[in-house]
Design goal:
Blueprint lengths: L2 E11 H5 L6 H4 L16 E5 L9 E5 L7 H7 L3 E9 L16 E3 L2 E8 L2 H7 L14 H14 L4 H15 L4 E7 L4 E5 L5 E5 L6 E5 L10 E2 L4 E5 L4 E5 L2
Antiparallel strand pairs: 1-4, 1-10, 2-3, 2-4, 5-6, 6-7, 7-8, 8-12, 9-10, 9-11, 12-13
Bound molecules: glutamine.
Length: about 250
């Protein structure tokens, strides 16, 4: 299982989000506290962020190496500022390729998506409709196929929350052993699911950093974090958090 996180709010540096907190994503790479499957996340990491003044599509940095080995990321992360950031550290599922293209976040237009879990590749292949116009997945990793299924629905005009929910429920019904925690954004909203793994969120309304954290597990011991139940859909913009049942 991987770990992922997102921030939506006042601009923050990648370092302040991914490296500084006591239980940051960088620390969760080697010492996650709540991961239900697997022990470490050393098969790669990725981060996507938006600079909306320059373009609607996010920038993305992905590597197929442990986050703690990448001194170049550590070097630039402190000077990159963004109001919407999505990061992931990876523990590859057995049989899945270890390569940059298999590493979250996946991207399509202005969208980013990460998957914490596993799902049968044949189930996903049967869900993909190659006439729908979205790009083919660039890796045979289950998560890349899952992202492609979401992209195809977005290309057909479905909203981000509905596309994510539809894909998770369909894949979860077709593969009873699937774990399908997804985290997605278009730069102005976050959408996340729980289906077999942990997820928490925090709303920060005062201080310098106003916004929403959504993460596989809390990045610190503050009691402001709220844990989600299983099989839920969370959507949030900078004002409201909505939680509904997927099934
Ligand atoms: N199945 C995905 C992969 O192989 C995600 C793995 C995970 O959540 N650990 O990358």
């Amino acid at each position: 299982m991987c770990r992922h996180m997102a921030w939506l709010g006042t601009p923050r540096t990648l370092t302040s989000l991914l490296r500084d907190p006591p239980h940051s994503l960088a620390r969760q790479a080697w010492m996650p506290r709540r991961m239900l499957h697997g022990k470490i996340n050393a098969d790669g990491f990725g981060v996507g962020w938006y600079v909306t003044a320059m373009r609607t599509e996010p920038a993305r940095y992905r590597r197929a190496v442990p986050i703690w080995t990448d001194a170049s990321f550590a070097s630039f992360a402190g000077v990159v500022n963004s109001s919407c950031v999505l990061g992931a550290v990876r523990n590859a599922t057995v049989g899945m390729p270890i390569e940059e293209t298999a590493t979250a976040p996946y991207a399509y237009g202005r969208y980013l998506l990460s998957h914490n879990g596993r799902v049968d590749v044949d189930v996903l292949m049967s869900m993909l409709d190659w006439t729908r116009g979205a790009p083919a997945p660039d890796s045979r990793c289950d998560s890349a196929l899952l992202a492609a299924a979401v992209w195809q629905r977005l290309a057909a005009g479905v909203s981000l929350a509905a596309a994510v929910a539809e894909v998770v429920v369909a894949a979860g019904r077709a593969d009873g052993a699937a774990r399908l925690n997804l985290l997605a954004t278009d730069g102005s909203q976050l959408v996340a699911t729980t289906w077999g793994e942990t997820l928490s969120y925090r709303v920060s309304t005062d201080g310098d950093d106003i916004g929403m954290d959504v993460a596989s597990e809390p990045s610190d011991d503050s009691n402001e974090w709220v844990d989600l139940d299983d099989h839920q859909l969370l959507t949030t913009d900078t004002r409201d958090v909505t939680i509904s049942n997927l099934i």
